[in-house]
Write a structure and sequence with these properties.
Elements: E1 2-6, E2 13-18, H1 25-42, H2 44-60, H3 62-73, H4 77-101, E3 105-108, E4 112-120, E5 123-127, H5 135-146, E6 150-154, H6 160-170, E7 179-181, H7 186-194, E8 199-203, H8 206-217, E9 222-226, E10 231-235, H9 241-253, E11 263-269, H10 273-285, H11 305-320, E12 324-327, E13 340-343, E14 360-366, H12 369-377, E15 384-388, H13 393-398, E16 404-407, E17 426-427, H14 432-436, E18 440-448
Parallel strand pairs: 5-6, 5-8, 6-7, 8-9, 10-11, 10-15, 11-14, 13-14, 15-16
Antiparallel strand pairs: 1-2, 3-4, 4-18, 9-17, 12-13
The structure holds nicotinamide-adenine-dinucleotide.
The site of nicotinamide-adenine-dinucleotide (NAD) has 31 residues, from helix 7 and helix 8.
Length: about 450
């Protein structure tokens, strides 16, 4: 059976891969298990060196890979190129940092000398989504490998070709069986979680994450989950409104809103609400929707008709409940959607409660910063949150219940920061020294001092 990959802008066939039969998965996992001992014994620094070798391969072919990424997933080519390059640079530089993060530590008191080791778990399965089709496998597979696990990657059924291209460049740098790829959908994902694996690293929706956690419970398999978000942006009355509106537009509509940390709920101080909305509407109307392969496109297509229909339904049902659409319309050709801004929203609407994976920004006014904090935290999600404002912004930021909070900027941290979700947006995390260590089992060996 074949998995056929379609271009979401043109609906042309981009290519195909063979689907891995579910009954072949036990053998794939057995191969990974057989390769584990030698890979573990190699040591973290030599493992990192091998991966660094693959980084140059990605950079050398960055333009070609970015064109494939745009064709298969739809994002504008500049953003696709940025994604490929960051994976290449990541392998070149971060693999060594990952190895350093795993170095043994020595502890000692009057009676005992202890060495703390960070050892691999064994076989890791990495299951990933389509919205950053190269970064997502890269972020999970690389630290798992450097930590000494062997890995079976299962990319999204929407973007198998980009993942296959990444695999084809990385796998030749590794011993046979250390990295394998399985193609398919939830069926293959479920079979992998149920197979004889030790660690499941997953990025995707909250619902699938919860089902993986339940399925992994039987064998008490280790699980790392990076899940969806419903990120708030709080705009205080003394915020720089131009900057806040520019940020809101970029972060709500980038990647056609198909970003886990996209700004979905915007809470604005009543006194500046109308001025902010008018600036945001101008920004939204200034964005060009089109095929990501074309020069000047800001907002590409939605990944498929099903995702597009979900977003349209959320917007329409909010309108029926009283929301006003002040920019864009939930209509248009093919898989495309214009950037939309809604006002007069409230938390009774699905639009303000469930993840919206599309180019939609919903704006609600607040009277006091306390009310803004209460509204922002009124969600089971806790991935990112952003505050724009003056002196009080930092205090508001500390009260927001999210893993990553930005003040007068987006949520990404300085180099070395983890990518981390709180509440139901994450269960474990990756990146940065603390994230790299999550792919390893801590053990201690002690002896008399
Ligand atoms: P999804 O959860 O539908 O699918 C993710 C992956 O899981 C796919 O490879 C899919 O085939 C597989 N899968 C589906 N059912 C499974 C099952 N029962 N068992 C095992 N595997 C299964 O998500 P998606 O639509 O591909 O991606 C969008 C979601 O990903 C959004 O919720 C988004 O917020 C989230 N996301 C989170 C982050 C983060 O860093 N927190 C980053 C990117 C995307």
């Amino acid at each position: 059976m074949k998995l056929v990959s379609l271009n979401p802008a043109t609906e042309d066939v981009v290519g195909e891969v063979p689907v891995t039969p579910v009954d072949a998965i036990a053998d794939v996992v057995a191969t990974a298990r057989a390769a584990f001992g030698a890979w573990r014994d190699l040591g973290a620094a030599p493992r990192a060196e091998r991966l660094a070798g693959a980084g140059q391969g990605l950079l050398d072919r960055a333009e070609e890979l970015a064109a494939l990424l745009t064709a298969e997933m739809g994002k504008p080519k500049k953003e696709a190129l940025g994604e490929v390059r960051s994976c290449g640079k990541g392998l070149l530089k971060e693999a060594a940092e990952m190895a350093e993060a795993l170095a043994p530590e020595h502890l000692e008191d009057a009676r005992t000398k202890t060495t703390l080791y960070r050892d691999p778990y064994g076989v890791c399965v990495a299951i990933t989504p389509w919205n950053y089709p190269m970064s997502m496998p890269h972020w999970l597979v690389t630290p798992a490998l450097v930590a000494g696990n062997t890995v079976v990657m299962k990319p999204s059924e929407e973007t198998p070709l980009v993942a296959q291209a990444w695999f084809d460049i990385v796998a030749p740098h590794l011993p046979e069986g250390v990295l394998q790829i399985v193609h398919g959908d939830g069926e293959q994902g479920r079979a992998l979680v149920a197979a004889d694996v030790d660690l499941v690293a997953f990025t995707g929706s909250k619902e699938v994450g919860a089902s993986i956690l339940a399925a992994a419970g039987d064998g008490l398999k280790r699980v790392l989950l990076e899940l969806g978000g419903k990120d708030p942006l709080v705009v205080l009355d003394d915020a720089d409104l131009d900057k806040a509106a520019r940020f809101a537009a970029r972060n709500s509509f980038r990647n056609a809103g198909q970003v886990c940390v996209s700004t979905e709920r915007i809470y604005v101080a009543q006194s500046v609400h109308d001025a902010f909305v008018s600036k945001l509407v101008d920004e939204a109307r200034g964005m060009t929707v089109g095929d990501g392969a074309e020069e000047g496109t800001d907002v590409g297509p939605m990944i498929n008709a099903r995702q597009r229909a979900k977003v349209v339904e959320q917007v329409r049902s909010a309108q029926v409940a009283g929301a006003k659409l002040v920019a864009g319309q939930p209509e248009g050709d093919g898989n495309f959607l214009q950037p939309m801004v809604l006002t007069h929203v409230d938390h009774s609407m699905d639009l303000m409660r469930s993840e919206t994976f599309g180019p939609v920004a919903a704006v609600q006014a607040f009277d006091t910063p306390d009310e803004a904090v209460q509204l922002a935290n009124d969600t089971p999600f806790g991935l990112g949150a952003v505050v724009f404002g003056g002196d009080d912004a930092r205090d508001v930021a500390r009260r927001l219940d999210a893993g990553m909070v930005g003040v007068n900027r987006g949520v990404g941290g300085a180099a070395g920061s983890p990518w981390v979700g709180a509440k139901q947006s994450g269960y474990g995390f990756h990146s940065g020294r603390h994230g790299h260590r999550q792919f390893a089992q801590v053990r201690i060996v002690s002896e008399p001092a």
